[in-house]
Design goal:
Elements (H helix, E strand, L loop, with lengths): L1 H4 L4 H18 L6 E4 L6 H12 L3 E4 L9 H9 L7
Parallel strand pairs: 1-2
């Protein structure tokens, strides 16, 4: 039905927009501060955009509920879980 109407699934549209913004900032990083707050990864397109923001000269990613008291073993386990929101 979506194809017949020339429309996109909302999740596909969201992913395309996130991917497009990541590509724009990768090619031409903004000079102004960019702060991503309250967002989590878990979706490849969002994870990529948050990675770009984190690497910007004036970028910051503020994760909700970040537990800074985790030990190294827990952080290693988190890194292995691609769907974990802190990745």
């Amino acid at each position: 039905m979506l194809a017949a109407e020339g429309a996109l699934d909302p999740a596909e549209r969201r992913n395309r927009l996130l991917e497009q913004q990541a590509a724009i900032w990768r090619r031409s990083p903004p000079g102004d501060p960019v702060i991503a707050a309250g967002l989590v990864g878990g979706m490849p397109a969002m994870t990529e955009l948050l990675s770009i923001v984190a690497r910007l000269d004036h970028g910051a990613v503020i994760l909700p509920g970040l537990d800074r008291t985790r030990d190294n073993a827990e952080w290693l386990a988190i890194q292995e879980d691609a769907s974990h929101p802190h990745i």
